[in-house]
## 1
Amino acid sequence: MSKSATDLMQEIIFSAFLDGIAALKASSKGLPNTLLRDLNAIHQNTTFADLPKELQTAISASVSSSFTRLLKEGYAVAPRDAAPPRSAAPRGDGPPRGPRGDGPPRGARGDRPGGPRRDRPEGRGDRTGPRPPRKPPAR
């Protein structure tokens, strides 16, 4: 049985995270102060170029191996431009499809669950003729 997409993505991200930590340790050459300095230099606005060279290499390798693993597990990986185009809107030259395409026509509300609404009066009530004009807004 193949793994679910969630399990697979968790494994890929966890593996990439561990590879990144190992790369940070390697870039500090075993010096704890250097490792702390490199960790503290990483923040929300850090760009890829700001990262240590070893970490850049580890991230690139993780991305490449992630796509390979997704393909091995049977998931489709393609650039956004290469995605199959969406089908055009259906035209009326074919047979009707969908839940309303077959069966007798439905009434206004009588065929719906609960039947017609009884909590509202039907029609315009006791009014006859057109509506009176609106009052101008107060100033």
Note: Residues 5-78 form one domain.
## 2
Amino acid sequence: MCNSGFHGSSIDIFETTEKNRTDSSHFLAWIDRTACLLRNEFGKYTKIVFVIDNAPWHNRLINDTIPPKGSWRKEYIIQWLNAHSINVPVKAAKAVFLKIVIKNLPEKRYEIDEAAKKYNVDIL
């Protein structure tokens, strides 16, 4: 929405069906498309902010920042730790590895934030 009302070309209205529904991929594509459109239309110095709610498809983490879950098998937790260059003991219980994960969790980064950042658009 802007001073003159809704920004018509950025509105994404469609009939929801099983095949055509809002999910993380659809929303991420809309963010990317709309951020690009608005940035091109309003120039690089105009402040652009998207205000969104906490729908599940708005909060998908980037793969690098998804932490292991307690339900993961021990081998997968060790793989995650190794992939993040975290030293692990040769032998330990699964609970020990999970404690190491908790101490070394990467900062959460969200897909929509990264998509908007490409166009200098803020997400609230």
Note: The radius of gyration is 20 Å.
## 3
Amino acid sequence: MARQSQTNRKARSLEQAEPEAVWRMLGLAARAGRVVIGAEGAAKAVRRQKAQLVILAADAANDTAQKAKRLCRRAGVPFRQFGTKNEIGHWTGHTARAIVAVLDDGFGRRLTTLIDQIIEPAGPNRQTDDVNTTLGG
């Protein structure tokens, strides 16, 4: 019975990620020292080609969001809009932060996959330029 339950959990996790899975993965990346928190640090990581993914809070200032999107597009860095400043700060061990850059390719790919699994059910109007919005957390 326990084995079937474990199999069902794995199947569900492959079908549909939950926002908390994103936060746990981001927290793990932060504890591993594989993220840069904040707009200035993230921008520097993107310009230096170190960032594998940039996550922007949905409640970030419009000017901050536009600058981050533009910088990521120019550098070819995947970008996702997800969660709130408080959630990003909480799960990375800081106060509220609008932007986090993920430096590790493995963490970046996994976080992108998890976020996309959450965003996909939100509807067919997903943006296709690596800028996505979701309900967050």
Note: Residues 124-137 have pLDDT under 50 and may be disordered.
